[in-house]
Amino acid sequence: VTVQGNYAFAGIGARLAIVELSDPKNPIVIYWSDILPGIVEQLEFHDNYLYAALGNAGFWIFEVTQAGSLSLVGQVETTNPARQFLLADNLAYVVNDFGGKPRTDEVLSIVDVQNPSTPKQISSFPLSAQARNLVLVNGFLYIAINPSYAGFEDTLWVVDISDPLKPELITAEPELAGRELVVIENQLFIADGPHL
After folding, report:
1. What does DSSP say about strands 120-126 and 140-145: parallel, antiparallel, or unpaired?
2. How far apart are CA 17 and CA 9, in angstroms?
3. Rounded Cα–Cα distance for residues 54 and 51 (Å)
4. Which of 61, 66, 80, 138 is deepest in the core (most CB within 10 A)?
5. Is 66 helix (H, G, I), strand (E, B) or coil?
6. Burial class of residue 152 in the structure, from the number of CB atoms within 10 Å of its CB (0-12 exposed, 13-18 middle, 19+ buried)
7. Average pLDDT for 18-23
8. Is residue 178 within 8 Å of 156, Cβ to Cβ?
9. How far apart are alpha carbons 167 and 149 in whole angstroms?
């Protein structure tokens, strides 16, 4: 779910909904999408566009119309199912992986979204295992690697994306592994279960 003003945009299985919230005691669903070809994994609203990670369907961009509905304007087929993403400086950093068992093709895709109607993957970067969270600080992408299968270690990756065409791994720190990453005033907080 992502909220903008008096509206909430929600992913429910393989459908999208817009909920009007002007009366908090009586939220009203004003729009349902058709069934989409992928499960809604993450949503984010930015500049009148709704960005969505849609699992097997990849990374999609919808325009929010004045009539309170959604119109698909662009999409990118990611290497693997799109799980989550981060928007910054007209780029989307999209984590895509199969999420079930060990594989060698988990990938971070970097997508140019300057023109939402023509998004384009400009580079990709291999990951060692499933990524659970990612944040951006001063040109560095911090990625929480938390595989759900045995034999792979939880790790915090630091990737230099100052040149989005050539992302570069700077370090991988097992002792800083955590499932949740939050940035406050250029400080990175890492949480793993009850520990911060």
Report:
1. unpaired
2. 6
3. 10
4. 61
5. coil
6. middle
7. 94
8. yes
9. 26
Q: What is the pLDDT of residue 147?
A: 65
Query: Which string of DSSP letters, residue by residue, matches 124-188?
Result: EEE-SS-EEEEEEETTEEEEEE--SSTT---EEEEEE-SSTTS-EEEEEEGGG--SEEEEETTEE
Q: What pTM did the predictor assign? A: 0.88
At residue 101, the pLDDT reads: 47
The number of beta carbons lying within 10 Å of the beta carbon of residue 144 is 23
Judge whether 119 and 76 are in contact, CB under 8 Å.
Answer: yes
150 confidence band (pLDDT: 50, 70, 90): low
Q: Where are the beta strands (DSSP E) in 77-119?
A: 82-88, 91-96, 107-112
Residue 7 has pLDDT above 60, yes or no: yes
CB atoms within 10 A of CB 30: 13
196: exposed, middle or buried (Cβ count in 10 Å: 0-12, 13-18, 19+): exposed
